[in-house]
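During the practical work, I selected for study one protein's amino acid sequence and its backbone structure tokens, as given directly below:
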Amino acid sequence: MNHCALGGYLVDMTGALPIDPIDHDGGKVPIAGCSNLRCTACGKTVRNVAGRATETDAAKLYAIADLQTAVRSAATTRMYLCTCRTHFQVQGSQALDDPELPPGYEANVPWSCAGHPIATLPRDVDGVTITSSNLGEIVTRALHGWTPDGARPEDKTAWWIPRLLVRLDGTPWQATVRTTAAAALVDPDPQARARALHLFMVAPDPADTQRTLEVFAGNRTLFVGVPDPVTTIAGDKMLDDTVWRVLAPLLKAPGRGRELARDFALTPGSGGVALYGALAAHDAEWVAKHALEIAQASPARIEDLINMVKYRFPRTVPSKPVIDLLASQAN
């Protein structure tokens, strides 16, 4: 069984609540509500319905076969209930087990994801039949911008492939998705390269990260200065910026990735938020030592460098002396 991230999500009536039982929230894609919640107190499967109930007794409500007859209209509100609790999700989504939520923000119900079956193929996914033999072809089409007619609106950009990867959690077919995307890193179509990088950014894997490094080091022209048509991250939106977001974990230790990043930082005109952010987070001592050289290589990006030093330096490396030095250059 697969389980939703953070115990599963409650969603309002505008949020995605999957019908296919394999669909779960993997923490890598736009949020989907859990369709298989169970109460740990009463043991019942949690039901949901659009609107608000006039009846307040949870057990009486739960016993009603057609819940819709027991509620009044409420535009975005989704009512969840078991035999011992009711909860109204009025707006947005809410994780049931998020350790980062401050007290009082949690749903305060004893519910959690009860699990979702492992996918089998062939299978209808968003209106297209996927088999073990056509999976690679379908992923290739998706890398070039196609999405099934039945895909959720939020998945019709670059999210359908990561969503498919999550749907295939626990199966050998995830490898087909990843190897097909890896091959697209050298595709003549920049849109395919962008979607492959997006997958590797939101669902990282060491082998994919290493393959990205090899391709990027071998042919920078596939990425440098090429617009990224699918990224939704604020900041620079060139393919090489997305590459640095993928490669960032490699900068934590000495190696080819770190050396390549340092080389780019000192190459005239190659500075950028993603590169500076990766170096500041994972190679801060080197950035502190070479801050002036980095700034002089890309003087138009000094403010970006200052911001990354300010917000990404670990606490063990003093940022103020570096910021003051760079600020004097900016003035």
User: Anything to note?
Assistant: The mean pLDDT is 93.
